[in-house]
Specification:
CATH class: Mainly Alpha
Structural class: mainly alpha
Number of helices: 12
Order of helices and strands: HEEHHHHHHHHHHH
Distance between the termini: 48 Å
CATH topology: MetI-like fold
CATH architecture: Orthogonal Bundle
Helix content: over 70%
Radius of gyration: 25 Å
Length: 293
């Protein structure tokens, strides 16, 4: 009787867990799984004469990704993402090394300063950069007044401005994992290396770099992948002169009304994202660490 009662109790507890998970499962099904399935199926269909989608199986959309025009945009987008990621690493790594050993109170203040800009719309912050960098903006006006430059510099509506906007928007995603990574460094290993006569570059090579490498990789994922999709940054900072894969996806859905091609581009980005995450996991990284904690 005891075994039967215990079995019934466990069964009821298990069903109760599933009932609690049901709202989340329904939510993910409706707003994650179903849209992904819809976009994937649409990517194999044909574009209608006047836009929309025509039923029928076709691989032409994926073949278009290898054309000279779209291929150039995709390659340029990956180069942009790589450049932005490297700049974020170079800027964030020494800063994270400097602040990681500070007291918890100071670190809390620094973390708050890093995350506070997220409370303001990214679009508003980017337009603030336009105000600073434009031809008659604050920076050019100041440099001309002190006679450092003779004519205004071309600082906006080009690829330089896009890189600047991407770095400014995404660098917190690199800073937070790196700060966490440096706080995991075993100080006793640093002291032991110093006692053995190790120089600063050897301490960095054998202690700091191996310990913070997972943080570098997780931060790189959280910078590289959004760079491919943040079309609003290139729209605002680059104007019509800068077209990347995010802009291309947006244009296919809104302007060209070629939904199957836009879906194929979206699926390609999603597949690449899963590939990067799979590589990260194979290298020993944990997906839950991508939150920067």
């Amino acid at each position: 009787m005891y075994l039967i009662a215990n079995f019934k109790l466990r069964t009821s507890v298990d069903w109760f867990k599933y009932i609690l998970l049901l709202p989340l499962i329904v939510w993910l099904g409706l707003f994650v799984a179903f849209p992904l399935l819809d976009v994937t199926l649409m990517s194999f269909m044909k574009s209608g004469t006047y836009g929309g989608v025509e039923l029928g199986f076709s691989l032409n959309n994926y073949g278009s990704l290898f054309s000279a025009l779209y291929g150039r945009i995709i390659i340029l987008s990956f180069v942009l993402a790589l450049v932005v990621t490297l700049i974020c690493i170079v800027m964030a790594y020494p800063f994270a090394m400097f602040v990681a050993n500070k007291s918890k109170a100071i670190l809390s203040v620094i973390t708050a300063l890093i995350t506070t800009p997220f409370m303001i719309s990214s679009v508003l912050r980017l337009y603030a950069w336009i105000t600073i960098l434009r031809t008659n903006g604050i920076l050019n006006s100041s440099l001309m007044k002190i006679h450092i430059i003779g004519k205004p510099l071309d600082l906006v509506y080009n690829n330089f401005a896009v890189v600047l906007g991407m770095v400014y928007t995404l660098i917190p995603f690199m800073l937070l994992p790196l700060i966490s990574g440096f706080r995991n460094v075993d100080i006793s290993l640093v002291e032991a290396t110093q006692d053995l006569g190790g120089k600063k570059w050897e301490i960095f090579k054998y202690v700091y770099l191996p310990t913070t490498l997972p943080a570098i990789f997780s931060g790189s994922i959280m910078v590289f992948i959004p760079t491919l999709g943040y079309f609003f940054v290139s729209d605002i900072m680059g104007g019509s002169k800068s077209i990347f894969i995010g802009n291309l996806v947006r244009d296919q859905f809104i302007s060209a009304h070629n939904w199957p091609l836009g879906s194929a581009l979206s699926v390609a980005i999603i597949a690449f994202t899963f590939l990067i995450l799979w590589i990260y996991k194979k290298m020993g990284g944990r997906l839950e660490d991508l939150g920067g904690n």
